[in-house]
Specification:
The complex is a heterodimer of chains A (504) and B (167).
Chain A: H1 7-27, H2 31-37, H3 44-65, H4 73-97, H5 104-115, H6 131-146, H7 148-156, H8 160-169, H9 180-208, H10 213-228, H11 246-259, H12 263-270, H13 276-279, H14 281-303, H15 310-325, H16 335-341, H17 344-356, H18 369-387, E1 397-400, E2 402-405, H19 408-434, H20 439-450, H21 466-480, H22 484-499
Antiparallel strand pairs in A: 1-2
Chain B: H1 2-15, H2 24-29, H3 31-34, E1 38-51, E2 54-60, E3 66-72, H4 73-77, E4 87-88, E5 91-99, E6 110-120, E7 123-124, H5 131-161
Parallel strand pairs in B: 3-6
Antiparallel strand pairs in B: 1-2, 1-5, 2-3, 4-7, 5-6
């Protein structure tokens, strides 16, 4: 029987939401440092106002919702789902008030895109944005990438159980260590290490390619945050193409590939388990699907005679495919060019790999490689079963840090999540087509939103209809949460509407 | 004949900045049609990178489409302002060959400039803070600090009497 919702349940969720909001209040103050460095004193008040509003709302909330009830799984799932929605309008304040976006809805779109590490943007005049605002956009992705909830729990965690549960709700349930606070610190440590390394590499390459030191360092920090969090925001409208540099593309490629790997995998490899690189089901799946998709995309572009040189073909196809597969969203081809030049078959294939996504427990989105690997193995297991005598027992296992038997429950779970993504994809594509866009571009854009990628066929722009903006906000949010947490939330809302809220 | 040729050359040079240029959108969306063709493009400088004797100059047109221009480094040296938040970059017009996927530059969409003209020099933009906004931020910050500590104190005092208040 599904339990009734009590007033205390709402208080537990609300109380913890407000605590997360307080963390956001502090994070909103960080870009002020950049504003002061670049003497953008006109921007400072915007961040102070956003932070102050957040603190006022959240502390009033904490005061009235304070409860001693411990967090349970249902609270954790709801908290994970609602946290993004709760933080979005608060994080959108500086984007809207500084005129970065044309409307408050657009600011919410960009905030959600940032938190979910999607990278689709409605920002206007990216090349003329204040440095502090540009930093803030990338910082949102970095925070979103390592999980605002993980950060919040790491700082605020009082009880071990509460933390474990909220961690589970955010689809990061494969812990590295039994101690979840320690896990969060390890995740943050890994992320910061790679972020700093990436920033140094990007800066050095940019300087060696003739860019001035100031721009190189600033861009380096931003690109590093966006690449590691597989975000896709860029401080320039041309994205990675701004630098016209193969070396810069390689650094970006390495950074977002690293970011798309499982944190558990990072920890295992950094702890000396080098063999994991060759045995891990996720790494093998990503390697196979990325190689196949690159070859097919390159083959299709060759067939349709889009590019004349083989090296260009491979370079463009590989970067775009890797960016889509890792759910990053950096591009070396203008979105208008993709929509106008690339054949529909390529756009369709790109949509599929965007939904397949990166590794679980990483900064990436999509169905996730571990599930894709499990589904493929399940198919082979069923074929083996059909071919074997009825008395034979067919078993299958997969390796992810340790060997795990492939059970029907695991296979069903993976297929359910995959089905959820397919439903979201069909829903989003239908809405986009109904808004008047052509089918292939609609699939591409929806795949990008659902998979939290950020590549665009040009549909995402301030001129797109408001219902489509809201649909994409929903798709980015639901895609990031892997649907289940969203369904639990919807279930609670329906229950509350049907049966009301019990006092106890 | 010679005089007429010189006159025509001078006229063309003077008219270059006034010649109609292709929009970035038209060039990017119809890249296949313009590939290898001579084009004119005009936009604001948003990035300069010198590579030996040549340089990349990124130009942003009025509609928000940016294209990389490959030109001699001496042209890039003439640029005074690069566009960013507090600067309007120099407005430049280039005439050159458009490449949908330049074989020389790894398949990037670019223009190899033959003619590079600075149409208008950029400038600094005044970005002084708004005083009412600054005042509002100070007031709100004060309210936030007061509320945070006041409510925190009330909670602590109540916790001493009752374990958890119920509203």
């Amino acid at each position: 029987m599904i339990p009734y919702l009590t007033k205390e349940d709402f208080k537990v969720i609300g109380f913890n939401l407000c605590r997360i909001g307080n963390v956001l209040g502090f994070l909103l103050l960080v870009p002020i440092i950049v504003a002061v460095i670049y003497k953008e004193f006109d921007i400072v008040p915007h961040f102070i106002i956003a932070s102050a509003v957040t603190f006022i709302l959240c502390n009033v909330g904490i005061h009235f919702l304070q409860t001693d009830k411990k967090m349970e799984l249902k609270h954790a799932l709801c908290l994970a789902a609602v946290a993004w929605i709760f933080c979005m309008p608060l994080a959108a304040i500086p984007l809207w008030s500084t005129g970065t976006t044309g409307s408050y809805l657009d600011a919410n779109f960009d905030a959600m895109s940032g938190f979910t590490t999607t990278g689709l943007s409605l920002a206007q005049g990216v090349d003329h944005l204040p440095y502090s605002i540009n930093f803030y956009r990338h910082f949102l992705q970095f925070v979103g990438g390592i999980g605002i909830i993980v950060v919040s729990l790491m700082i605020l965690s009082k009880s071990e159980i509460s933390s474990v549960l909220a961690f589970k709700g955010e689809a990061r349930d494969m812990g590295i260590r039994p101690n979840i606070v320690r896990t969060s610190r390890i995740i943050l440590g890994i992320a910061l290490t790679f972020m700093v390394l990436g920033a140094v590499l990007f800066s050095v390459v940019a300087i060696s390619e003739g860019a001035n030191v100031g721009t190189s360092v600033f861009d380096g920090v931003n690109y590093s945050m966006a690449a590691f969090s597989t975000g896709g925001f860029a401080p320039h409208s041309q994205s990675i193409l701004f630098y016209h540099s193969t070396l810069y593309e390689i650094v970006a490629l390495v950074m977002f590939l690293i970011g798309s790997f499982n944190f558990t995998f990072h920890y295992a490899v950094l702890s000396g388990k080098r063999r994991e690189i060759f045995k891990n089901i996720e790494i093998k799946t990503v390697f196979i699907t990325l190689t196949l998709s690159t070859l097919v995309i390159a083959g299709l572009l060759l067939y349709f005679n889009v590019y004349s040189s083989a090296s260009i073909l491979f370079r463009k196809a590989f970067f775009q495919a890797a960016s889509a597969h890792t759910t990053t969203g950096f591009g070396t081809i203008n979105s208008a060019q993709i929509a106008g030049l690339w054949p529909s078959a390529v756009l369709f294939l790109m949509s599929i790999i965007m939904i397949l996504g990166a590794c679980a427990n990483s900064t990436g989105g999509g169905i996730k490689a571990i599930r894709v690997g499990i589904i493929i193995k399940s198919f082979f297991r069923e074929i083996k079963k059909a071919l074997s005598p009825s008395s034979a027992v067919v078993t299958e296992k997969y390796h992810h840090i340790e060997d795990t038997p492939l059970t029907d429950t695991i296979a069903r779970g993976a297929m359910l999540i995959a089905l959820g993504y397919v439903i979201l994809f069909v829903f989003g594509t239908t809405v986009t087509v109904l808004c008047g866009y052509n089918a292939s571009n609609s699939m591409y854009e929806t795949g990008s939103a659902v998979g939290n990628v950020g590549l665009s066929s040009g549909i995402t722009s301030p001129a797109m209809p408001a219902p489509l903006k809201i649909t994409y906000i929903f798709l980015m949010w639901a895609g990031r949460l892997e649907i289940i947490a969203v369904l639990v939330l919807i279930g609670f809302v329906i229950l509350a509407l049907r049966k009301g809220v019990r006092r106890r | 004949m010679k005089k007429a040729f010189i006159f025509a050359a001078i006229l063309l040079t003077l008219m270059a900045p006034l010649a109609s240029s292709e929009s970035g959108q038209a060039l990017i969306e119809n890249a296949g049609r313009f590939d290898g063709m001579p084009v004119t493009f005009r936009g604001e400088v948003i990035g300069v990178m010198t590579r030996g004797d040549f340089a990349w100059v990124n130009l942003l047109d009025n509609e928000g489409y940016a294209i990389g221009i490959w030109c001699p480094a001496e042209n890039a040296k003439k640029i005074s302002f690069i566009g960013d938040y507090s600067h309007v970059g120099d407005n430049v017009q280039v005439a050159g060959t458009f490449h949908m996927a330049c074989t020389e530059h790894g398949g990037d969409l670019d223009i190899h400039a033959d003619n590079f003209t600075i149409v208008a020099q950029g400038r600094e933009v005044d970005k002084s803070p708004s005083l009412p906004l600054a005042a509002l931020s100070i007031v709100l910050a004060a309210v936030a600090i007061f509320i945070t500590f006041y409510l925190w104190r009330i909670r602590k005092e109540r916790e001493k009497i009752l374990p958890w208040p119920s509203y």
